[in-house]
Amino acid sequence: MPALALDLDAVLADTRPLWDAWLDDAARRARVELDVPEDRVAAAALLDERLGEWRPLLERFAADRAPVFFRPRADVSALLRRQAAAGARIGVYTDAPRELAELALAHVGATRRVETVGTLDEVRAALGADVVVVASREELAALP
After folding, report:
1. What are the tens digits of pLDDT across the range 27-82?
2. In 52-118, where does DSSP find H-type helix?
């Protein structure tokens, strides 16, 4: 069974709405303009310059609001269980900050089935170059 790299936002939990809500809140609280790039890896560098220690702020904000944004999906959970039972190693890739990604995984009940979380390159490095990239729920459902 090959290793799987799942797109967090497209397959398990869309973190973008919570990220956007946090950016709005952080800009308001810090009274700064946070016009950050769409790519969240690039945005992190800008936030380091503008806000300093922003990750704990994101983590607290997201933890308070995660139940509103993330809900487990029985169909996706069943697909993950099936792949894990078949011996698949599962990684999750995203451009979201790790704090947000791990919180999302916990709220959708996927943490224990996921071996690694990071960018696609990091997941490939951890699981091997022959990893199957899964970019949608439909692709996950279509796997043997």
Report:
1. 998 888 888 999 999 999 999 998 889 999 999 999 999 999 999 999 999 999 99
2. 55-69, 74-85, 98-107
CATH of the domain at 111: 3.40.50.1000
Global pTM reads 0.91
Q: Which two tokens stand for residue 26?
A: 């952080």
pLDDT of residue 69: 97
List, in order, residues 6 or more apart from 45 with CB less than 8 Å away.
none
Share of the chain above pLDDT 90, in %: 90
Same domain, 76 and 130: yes
What gap in Å lies between CA 90 and CA 106, rounded to an integer? 15
Tokens of 66: 């995660």
Whether 8 contacts 136, CB under 8 Å: no
Expressed as residue numbers, the domain containing 130 is 4-13+71-142
How many domains are there within the chain? 2
